[in-house]
Amino acid sequence: MMPHHPPLRIAIAGLGAVGQKLAESLDAGVPGLELVAVSAKNKQAAEQRLSSLQRRVPVVDLDQLEPLSDMVVECAPAGLFRQVVQPFAMSGKIAVVLSAGALLTNMDLIDIVRHSGGQIVVPTGALLGLDAVTAAAEGRIETVRMITRKPVRGLLGAPYLVENNISIDDINEPLRVFSGSPRDAALGFPANLNVAVALGLAGLGVDRTTLEIWADPALDRNTHTIEVISDSASFTMSIANIPSENPKTGRITALSVLAYLRKLRAPLRVGS
Q1: Which domains, and CATH codes, for the chain?
Q2: Percent with pLDDT over 90 in the chain
């Protein structure tokens, strides 16, 4: 007889394009998981957006998520990262974080989960081949290089562009707007380059990974090309992500989180 486990109670912090997709997918049914709470800035609007779900899910304040659930998926603005994650870290629970860039200024949370028995998970998101990078990191990686090209509308308003007076509104050809490390990019492009931080954390680190960001008026998809040289393999990977309703986020981001969640109670798990 198969052992019976109570469903994992999932909370979602933030109901943008990613949070909405996850809520709908969990409501449709993922074996072993149950959506129990959502937090959003505008509670009334969130309740309206969730009104079509089969099962009513309460919209609560951020500080109410942890007592209600076993795990949180953080889909909120980066400024709320600590407020979302810390209660779960201190309680020995799991926090799945999409604002990976915000983790860099909250690294003490890793020490907290190390002692509490919890876990912070940075999902694959929009990044192709993260498993291959983490595998290569078990040996010796020489270089990791990432080139990101985005449609203009996906980069408009980025703090780095504003602070450096870089105008991309009327460009007619691709323009390189940044060259540096994922750590610097996370500060200057907080809504755009969580994938670069995830790559840095998986491989050489966020300071030794090199990154270029291009604004390309001819593109309608977010594209990432990764080049890795290691003692186990050398590989180049490219992906073109279709934007979600939020042009700064690809549709595959929500699907990546859903794939991770589905593995938690799946009888067969493919991929690490």
Answers
A1: 8-125+252-263 (3.40.50.720), 130-248 (3.30.360.10)
A2: 75
Q: Are 8 and 265 in contact (CB under 8 A)?
A: yes
Residue 253 pLDDT grade (very low, low, confident, very high; cuts 50, 70, 90): confident
Cα 91 to Cα 68: distance, rounded to the nearest angstrom: 12
147 neighbors 116 (Cβ within 8 angstroms): no
Prediction pTM value: 0.90
Mean pLDDT of the region 150-154: 90
- Whose CA is closest to 69, among 25, 33, 37? 37
Point out the residues that are catalytic.
224
Phi and psi torsions of 173, nearest 5°: -145, 165
Report how far residue 8's alpha carbon sits from residue 141's, in angstroms, rounded to the nearest whole number.
36
Secondary structure of 42-106 as H, E, C letters = CHHHHHHHCCCCCCCCCEECHHHHHHHCCEEEECCCHHHHHHHHHHHHHCCCEEEECCHHHHCCC
Longest dimension (CA), the chain: 65
